[in-house]
What does this fold into?
Amino acid sequence: MSIITSSALILVEFQNEWLSSEGKLYSLFEDKTLLNTAISNTHCALTHARDKSIPVIYTAMGFSPNYTEHVCILATAWAAHDLG
It folds into this structure.
């Protein structure tokens, strides 16, 4: 199985409220150059994925009120780091 056939592009929290200049949260980003570079790079990755028929997955990110997921995410990250 090739890397492409077992791959997907996952976009987390890509919403107009953050990414569109008309979005309500866009003004919160102080470094517009950095933000616009990230948007441009994402557009290139998305175009490539679509051209190669790589699945694109859009997902939101959410947490419970006490952020218990945060502990699991950190533990997983440290475990992956330790494995090299």
